[in-house]
UniProtKB/TrEMBL annotation:
Gene Ontology molecular function: ATP binding; ATP hydrolysis activity
NCBIfam families: AztA
Keyword ATP-binding: yes
InterPro entries, per the entry: AAA+_ATPase, ABC_transporter-like_ATP-bd, ABC_transporter-like_CS, AztA-like, Metal_Ion_Import_ABC, P-loop_NTPase
The protein, known as: Metal ABC transporter ATP-binding protein
SUPFAM superfamilies hit by this protein: P-loop containing nucleoside triphosphate hydrolases
Pfam family of the protein (one): ABC_tran
Phylogenetic lineage: Bacteria, Bacillati, Actinomycetota, Actinomycetes, Kitasatosporales
Assigned keywords, A-Z: ATP-binding, Nucleotide-binding, Transport
Family note: Belongs to the ABC transporter superfamily.
ABC transporter domain mapped to chain residues: 22-247
Regions annotated as coiled coil: none
Length: 249
């Protein structure tokens, strides 16, 4: 809502609706011959935090992969409202932890979209990396090897890599898994701040408190979109249906 102040009164003028940042239409996707997503049609609003929730195996990570462009749909369309490549923070895998990478080098990889992997980083790239390390509270870990860190510290390093990309679309797969309550709180505040700065944030989460705190919610079940809309509306039937969601921490 935009406020126009005239000499004697305030007029509230509704802002024109923004087109969605991402629109999926009748998307099917899976792995080889294994179908996972079925006829998924949804919009990701351009502003705020969208939470993607649903039981284990319902297809949240697969959907994030489709939006990120790393999983190609077998049918249907994915339309991005801007030309920027999404920043994608996948679920932490233990394989990558064995790579001989410092935290700083890991975060620098977030600049490869802008610079290419073999080009020297510019001073603005280094500033973006410094800012991301600082926002995630891991500047003091910059010279440590990724494999030496605790699970929560590694998770923050991967999130710093995602934020260093400075995309207008940040996709996160269960970003708070493995974090203690204080760190989880910190990440939730950070995501709210990033969204307030104009970045579209999409996070897959089992955490209903986090999902409720978002602006928009998508509920998946068995690879189909069961509900979409305001978090309170989407989550109420899911809660009354039984404990299909749980914190994994
Ligand atoms: N690389 C893969 N190859 C084959 N099948 C996969 C692969 N990744 C996921 N699947 C299958 O796809 C289905 C959906 O998995 P996905 O990880 O998208 O669900 P999810 O909702 O993110 O689950 P969780 O909450 O447990 O993280 C599951 O049945 C899973 O076994």
């Amino acid at each position: 809502m935009k406020m126009i102040i005239t000499t004697d009164r305030i007029l509230a003028v509704p802002l024109p609706p923004r087109p969605p940042r991402v629109r999926l239409t009748a998307v099917d996707a899976g792995y080889g011959r294994r179908p996972v997503l079925c006829e998924v049609t949804l919009d990701i609003p351009a502003l705020g935090v969208t939470s993607l929730t649903g039981p284990n195996g319902s297809g949240k990570s697969t959907l994030l992969g489709v939006i990120a462009g790393v999983i190609r749909p077998t049918s249907g369309t994915v339309h991005h409202g801007s030309g920027q490549a999404p920043a994608f923070v996948p679920q932490r895998s233990t394989a990558g932890d064995m790579l001989p990478l410092t935290v700083r080098r890991t975060v620098e990889m977030g600049r490869w979209h802008a610079r290419g992997p073999w080009r020297r980083l510019t001073s603005s790239d280094h500033s973006a990396v410094d800012e991301a390390l600082d926002r995630l509270g891991i500047t003091h870990l910059a010279t440590r090897q990724l494999g030496e860190l605790s699970g929560g510290q590694r998770q923050r390093a991967l999130m710093a890599q995602g934020t260093a990309q400075q995309s207008d679309l940040l996709l996160l797969d269960e970003p708070c898994t493995g974090l203690d309550p204080e760190a989880r709180h910190g990440i939730e505040h950070l995501l709210a701040d990033i969204a307030a700065e104009g970045t579209t944030v999409v996070q897959a989460t089992h955490d209903l408190t986090a999902a409720r705190a978002g602006h928009h919610c998508l509920l998946l079940r068995d690879g189909r979109l069961e509900a979409a809309g305001a978090p309170a509306d989407v989550l109420a039937p899911a809660l009354s249906a039984g404990p299909v969601h749980h914190r994994t921490e």
